[in-house]
Specification:
Elements lengths: L4 H16 L7 H19 L1 H6 L1 H4 L8 E5 L2 E4 L4 E4 L2 H4 L8 H13 L10 H13 L6 E5 L2 H16 L3 E5 L8 H6 L3 H4 L9 E4 L4 H14 L3 E6 L15 H12 L2 E5 L23 E4 L11 E5 L1 H4 L17 H16 L2 H22 L4 E7 L2 E6 L2 H13 L2 E2 L9 E4 L7 H18 L3
Parallel strand pairs: 3-13, 5-6, 5-7, 7-8, 8-9
Antiparallel strand pairs: 1-2, 2-3, 4-10, 9-10, 11-12, 12-14
Helix pairs in contact: 6-14, 7-14, 11-12, 15-17, 16-17
Length: 451
Amino acid sequence: MTRNIQEAFEEAIDFVNIIKKPAGTVSLEERQKVAKETVENFRDYINKGFLEYRKSVTEAGEFAVTEWTGQGSILKDALDREYIDILGGFGLYSYGIRHPRIVEAVKAQLDRSPQYSQEMLDPLRAKLARVIAKLAPGDIQYGFFANSGTEAVEGAMKLAKFYTGKKGFISMLKGFHGKTLGSLSLMGKNDYRAPLLPLLEGIRHVDFGDAEAVEYELKHAKAVGDEIAAVVAEPIQGEAGAIVPPDDYWPRLREICDKYDVLLIADEVQTGFGRTGEIFGVDHWDVQPDIMCFGKALGGGVVPMSGFFSTPKIWEVMEPNPFMHTTTTGGNPLACASALAAITVMHEENLPAQAAEKGAYVTKRLRELGERYPGILHDVTGMGLLIGMHFVDDEIGYHVASGLFARGVVTAGTLTNAKCIRFEPALNIPYELLDEALNRMEDVFKSLNVS
């Protein structure tokens, strides 16, 4: 690539001018150009592999599906093709795309101050922390805000090590906690770990849902002098395929962690803020973790936002030197405004209850489809609107996902279970759109013609 500063400036100016045009005034010719150039730019400047993986390229015909706008549970591409969104941005869009109340709050804060000075006290961050402390179970009170889920997990690991003085962790097979080096060390799938080994020392993995396996590891670690700082788990495994543990699992984890004097970390990045039918996933079992990680929906689907929170007792280690863990952009005013507005929407629209009711409806409909068209859908798992559709094999799963895309429904597989397709729409998705998505899914099942 030859350096050309003048061309760089000109291209940036041209695209900013397109962004600034009022909706509906960008010509079809301009949008077609954007669609074509987007494919070239992914190929030449981001990653060629995405073009082979993305159904937006492989199933789209002459012009790749280039995301242009969206509202609620409808996405529209640059050529005005519409798609029902049951992917929900991998849990990002719990409130729908561009929820008006959330966008309004962010725009208002943008006019006041988009970032912090880093020296004055920032009121939005302080208020959001107070609100989350009141939402969280038990004694969870103090927190730190960041930008992504993996940052929240990294911070939680760091806090656990700092507080306990121990280095080891127990995490779950098929678990997903992010892909920075610390959180990747916790991940329970070989594909993403093996090329980067060695990762952090002292990580042990056990089967999700098996509390006795956790106790076995803690017992033997203690016997040989290996020190474990914390047990880390998702309340419901998301990327593994919306896997729900046995009812006694989380209460037993709490008992076991107390018995062996280790911390319990709940990764609520995907399950938090209403997704599973409760405000937090651990609320299903009335368990208080020692540390909780948040992300995805926390930012309202408008501004990236994450955080990790803990109890006053644990957080004391952060007080003598509050600069032990810092970030320049985490908890910025726009993100906090977005999160505060999102929490008001969650309350006023009763999104946890919507998730529970609609999740039961979708699960019932999916199981009926599985019975009518045997040999395609093996199982349906999950809680609320964190639903995994488990197919007989990878090939069928791919054909269902691509068939849905061709019929105007956006979904995708999970990252640690290739046979599983997610059904994870906005919690306030209308029933009419759920029915339409399910009808199109039945059409895909018919087309597979599996006996």
